[in-house]
Amino acid sequence: MPTSTRLIAADIRNRPELNARMTKAALLSQYAVEIERLKADLLAARERNGIFLSAASWADLASEHEARRLALEDSARQVELTRCVQPSEGRRSSAQHATHDNPRAI
Questions:
Q1: CB of 37 within 8 A of CB of 29?
Q2: Which of 3, 19, 21, 106 has its CA 20 to 30 A from that of 84?
Q3: What are the CA-CA distances from residue 15 to residues 8, 18, 19, 20 (Å)?
Q4: Are the beta carbons of 54 and 34 closer than 8 angstroms?
């Protein structure tokens, strides 16, 4: 493979986005959305006795919960498939077990 198309470890640059810089306008719009969500939650809590969320916040939480549940089920299926594909080293067949306990029983 030519070196021009091959990735070299020194050529890889990490670009973290966790604490990315934001423009003031983007930051203000993000805060405005958050404030509106909090106002809706506060209004929902005031209208009822107890702590409640607005319908939009509840829908967001429910969709996040469903996505996490589906991801967990998918991970569990992957683990089961991996276990089925790789034979367990701790288990021996009955023939191996018989020869191990009694070497003359062949």
A1: no
A2: 106
A3: 17, 9, 10, 9
A4: no
Residues 6+ apart with CB under 8 A from 74: none
Give residue 63's identity as a one-letter amino acid code. Answer: S
CA distances from 8 to 1, 4, 5, 12, 13 (A): 12, 9, 9, 7, 11
Model-level pTM greater than 0.70? no
The ranges of the chain with pLDDT < 70 are 1-12, 14-19, 49-51, 87-106
For residue 99, with 0-12 CB atoms within 10 Å meaning exposed, 13-18 middle and 19 or more buried, which class applies?
A: middle
